[in-house]
Amino acid sequence: MNGSKNERSETTGTVGHGCAVGTPLYFDAVLEPHRALSRSGFVTVILIVGAISLAVGIFFLIKGAWPVFGFLGLDIFLLWLAIKLNTRTLKIVERIQVKVDEVRVTRETTRNARSWSFNPYWLNVTLQETAQGKGEIRLSSHGFSLGLGAFLMPRERREVADALKQVLADLGRIS
Length: 175
Known about the structure:
By secondary structure, the protein is α+β, with helices and mostly antiparallel strands. It has two domains: 3-35 and 90-170, PH-domain like; 39-89. It has helices at residues 39-62, 66-89, 154-170, and strands at residues 3-5, 9-10, 24-25, 27-31, 93-99, 102-108, 113-118, 124-129, 135-141, 144-148. The longest helix has 24 residues, at 39-62. It is elongated. Mean pLDDT is 83; it is low at 1-20.
């Protein structure tokens, strides 16, 4: 979770989907997955593993076991590919914005961006968690349900869900 605002703030210009200037924004949370490995960390891991594989590969090459050298190179390539694919799946941003007359949720991935709009009066916010610590924040209204924050830690999901419920309660929408 990058941050959330529980206090009222004024927007400047248009926000994402044509929200009017000066519309009170009561809650704005941007949710992003944790990235355990930075770009420099990625390069460091590949270089260290590559250097070790090169040294081991040269040893086996000298001993006459030349196929091992090729397999060690394949290992480095597969490690690089796995880290790149994992990084790509972590490129998701979810944003929750609460205004007096609308709750807007936007989800941006590497493939597309989608947006959903809910009436805050009818919105139900629930926290669904399993014993293994997996779960999501579930927004439901009029038979439609949307899951958010599945990539967050359980404590972070609870904080976002509680803050969202509190904002909606402060607006007099739910009890």
